[in-house]
Each structure stands twice: as structure tokens, then as C-alpha cells.
Amino acid sequence: MALTARLPATEGERTSGDAARHGARDSVPFALALVPFAFAIGAASASAGLSGIEAGFGTAALLAGASQLAAIDLIDSGGGIAITVVMVALINLRFVFYGAGLARWFSGEPLRWRLALAIPLVDQNFMLCQQRFAEQGSPTWRRQYYLASSAVLVVTFISCQVVAFRLGASLPAALGLHLAAPLAFVGMLTMAAKGQRERIAGLIAGALVVATAGVLGAGALPMAAMAGVGAGLRWNGGQR
Amino acid sequence: MTVLLTFALGGLVTFGLRSTMIFCGGRLSTSQRAELAIGLISPAVLSAIVASSLFLNRSDVALPASADFLAVVLGGLAAHRTKNISMALLVGLPTYWLACAVGLG
Fold first, then answer.
1. Does the residue A2 lie in any domain?
2. What ipTM did this prediction achieve?
3. Which of A65, A232, B10, B25 has the fewest C-beta atoms under 10 angstroms from its C-beta?
4. Boundaries of domain holding A209
């Protein structure tokens, strides 16, 4: 996605206000793309029968849409704490890589600041900052830019969830909000399954979870996912 | 209480993943195979979740309602063709409403 604002040309331009303005403006297209996804999560929370406190706490604790949606789905289907936490960890494993970027960008900041900055680290602000910070802004400029872009994303994400949750509780089942989670996931799946290996991993995991759920119960989900990853790793493109 | 505990533990694990590299000083050295495996986690996990939402009722295999199935398939196709995740919802839900209206629900 193209950035909406030009890069700051001189060090003099890199004031805090300038950084915050750039950060907020650049994150708007990403925030708009978040809206339907956040609505799906809010609707799924309402559909799963979570209370407002549970839904809100889930959003604040995770700040990661895909894993939150998966957790809601597993809670709704009685997956159990251990299985749900394992799935959340698997889905969010990519944050280790994002954290490496964050550690480099803010290496001069005190530890407590770096840890605080890690809280809102998500796909969107990582992608934004990876492009922006390649130009080596000053530490203050980077921090202000990161905080402003994160604020726009987090506020959009949470407010859309709140609206969907409040609407979801009062809307009829005929609207099909129970499909919000599987539809959001299938959309993400089409993006994630971009190569043969990824498609093999998905196919095996999907088939195995259905085949083994009767025996393994909720444990079928992480087992099938790991088996899918194993199958994808072994796949050599059909060559001997 | 169980729900709050689940989210709390999930949140702790997620924060741990986000901050791991801060404690490691940003040094990330993984093998090519490990990076390949991490790239395969998303499709495997997502596919397992979609399959279980569609074909499982708790732990029992159950065929999905036609309207649900049609909505997910067409939503997925729309997202795939447009390369836009939101299209899965924007096409899938109207498909569900239409399918229900013609008696496939």
C-alpha cells in the first residue's frame, strides 16, 4: 500500500508534531481496511455470547485481530484454555520477527519505553514503519510517528469492535453474524495460501482437523495445524 | 472467569512474542527451514479453523447448512480474486442472506 505523505526531506522537518501528523495520515488507509475486520470480531464476540467486559478485555489483552477471532471461536466451541492459548501463540508467532524490527528502530530508548512500544505492535504499523524508518528518522521522530500511527489503528480497531458488539447483541440471527469469523478467516486464508507449500499445509491441516476431531477433541486443531506445517515443509513441488 | 483467564494468558503470551527480540537486542538468526515453517503456520492454522467452523459441531463431523457453505466459498473466491480480505465479508454475508431468502438456509 502506498504511503499518503511525502517523506520528511530535512532534519528540521522532523519535529514531533510533524512526525505525529505523518504517522496519523499514513495509517488512515490501513485503519480503513481494518474496519470490516474489526466489525467481524465485534459481531463474533456478541454471537459467541461474551459479555462486554470479556469482549473488551480480549481486545485490550491481545490487540491482534486474527488470534482474537480464533480465541473467540475456540471459546465458543469449548476449546479449553490450553488449546486456545496454544493457537493464539501459533497465530502470533510472526510478532517475534516484528519485534526484531522494533528492537532495531528504538535501540536507543530505555527498556521500559521499548517494552511499552511493543504493546501496540501489529502487522499494519510494522509495515508502515518498515518503509518509513528505512530513511533513518531521529529517535524522537520515529517514536512520535510510531505512536501516532499506532493510536489511529488501535482507536479504529477498538471503536469498530464496540459498535459491532453492541449492534450484534440486538441484531437477529438471520443477518448471519455467526459467519463473521469464518468469513474473515477464509479471506485471510486466501492471502496466506499464496504458494504450493502453503496450499498443501492448509489442505492437510483442514482435512486432518475434521478427520481427527472425534478422537482428539479440541486438541485436533493445534495437532492438525502442526501436521499441515510438516506436510508443507516436506512438499517438494511434486518432484522426485 | 475462564474467558478472562484465557484472554489474559493469550495476552501475556502475545506480549512475550512481541518483546522477545527487545530482550535479545534485535538479533534474529534463524535457519531457512525455520523461516519456511513459520511462513506455513498461518495457512495451516487458518485452514484448520475454517474447516472446524464449517464441518464440526463440537467434535462431531456435521455438514454445514447450504447457505453457510455457499457464503464461505463465494466469500473466499471474492477475496482471492480481488486480493482483498474484506471482500470475503462483503460478498459472503449478502450471499448468505440471498441463499436464505431462496430457502437454502
1. no
2. 0.85
3. B25
4. 193-240
Please give the single-letter amino acid code of residue B12.
L
For residue A16, the model assigns a pLDDT of 60
Report yes or no on A20 lying in a domain.
yes
How many beta carbons lie within 10 A of that of residue B99, not counting itself? Answer: 20
Residue A75 included in any domain = yes
Chain A contacts in chain B segment 4-63 (CB below 8 A) = 4-11, 13-15, 17-22, 24-28, 33, 36-56, 58-61
* Chain A residues within an 8 Å CB radius of B38: 93-94, 97
Residue-wise pLDDT tens digits, A223-239: 898 899 999 999 876 55
The whole-number pLDDT of residue B11 equals 97
A187 and B75 within 8 Å at the Cβ level: the answer is: yes
Report the chain A residue with the minimal C-alpha distance to residue B83.
A191
B7/A54 CB distance under 8 A: yes
Question: pTM, whole model, 2 decimals?
Answer: 0.73
Cα angle A190, A195, A197; round to 5: 110
Residue from A35, A156, A186 whose CB has the most chain B CBs within 10 Å, to mutate = A186
